Amino acid sequence: MNPSVPIREDLFREGLDGWKLIGNKCQSCGKIYFPKAKTICLNCLSPDLIEISLNRRGKLYSFTIASVPSEHFHAPYTVGYIILNEKVRVFSQIEESNNKPLKINMEMELVIGDLWKEDEKHIIGYKFKPV
Question: pTM for this structure?
Answer without folding.
Answer: 0.88
